[in-house]
């Protein structure tokens, strides 16, 4: 018998199976269960490529507004602060959403990394990756046959 890891969980799947965990759902937790809300519920339906793409474009527009407000408009204080907080919270939200979408294979890892890593510096990187991925997907579709 092996000692538990830091989280107090068994160190291996074999040990978990020895304890009586018979299915993958018991080993992985509620997220792997087909009936759980996180696996196939309302949250999964909201996470689509198109919605993430438009959220990225919105984030880029807010960031552009922040840059214009901070550098071109003389940093008007209430507006710059609101735009700064909005950019920060959107970056965190977009990062979590894109990492989750990458795990669910909704977006490629490249898009998720562009949003999560480079999005704090400039969300334009994420928007560009979304546009590149959309073009790649359109090019991979077969052409419509003539009627």
What does this structure look like?
The termini are far apart. Helices cover 66% and strands 0% of the residues. With 147 residues, it is mainly alpha-helical. The chain folds into two domains: 1-39, no CATH class; 47-139, no CATH class. Helix 5 (49-72) runs antiparallel to helix 8 (124-140), helix 6 (77-103) packs antiparallel against helix 7 and helix 7 runs antiparallel to helix 8 (124-140). The chain has helices at residues 13-19, 24-28, 37-40, 42-46, 49-72, 77-103, 109-116, 124-140.
Protein topology:
Blueprint: H1 13-19, H2 24-28, H3 37-40, H4 42-46, H5 49-72, H6 77-103, H7 109-116, H8 124-140
Helix pairs in contact: 5-6, 5-8, 6-7, 7-8
Specify the overall morphology.
Answer: elongated
How much strand? under 5%
Largest sheet: none
Mean of residue pLDDT? 78
- How many domains? The number is 2
Strand pairing plus helix content: what structural class? mainly alpha
E-strand count: 0
Gyration radius, in Å: 21 Å
DSSP summary: helix tally: 8
> Would you identify the regions where 5 or more consecutive residues have pLDDT less than 50?
13-39
Portion of residues in helices? 55-70%
Spatial gap, N to C terminus:
67 Å
Note the run of SSEs as H and E: HHHHHHHH
Kindly list the characteristics that best describe this protein:
single chain, 147 residues, mainly alpha, 2 domains
């Amino acid at each position: 018998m092996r000692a538990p890891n830091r989280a107090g969980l068994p160190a291996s799947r074999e040990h978990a199976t020895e304890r009586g965990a018979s299915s993958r759902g018991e080993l992985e937790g509620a997220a792997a269960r087909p009936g759980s809300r996180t696996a196939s519920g309302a949250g999964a339906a909201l996470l689509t490529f198109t919605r993430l793409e438009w959220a990225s474009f919105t984030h880029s527009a807010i960031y552009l507004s922040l840059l214009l407000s901070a550098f071109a408009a003389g940093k008007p204080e209430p507006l710059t602060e609101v735009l700064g907080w909005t950019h920060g919270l959107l970056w965190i939200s977009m990062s979590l959403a894109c990492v989750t979408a990458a795990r669910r294979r909704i977006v490629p890892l490249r898009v998720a990394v562009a949003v999560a890593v480079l999005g704090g510096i400039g969300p334009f990187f994420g928007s560009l990756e979304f546009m590149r991925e959309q073009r790649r997907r359109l090019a991979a579709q077969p052409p419509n046959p003539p009627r």
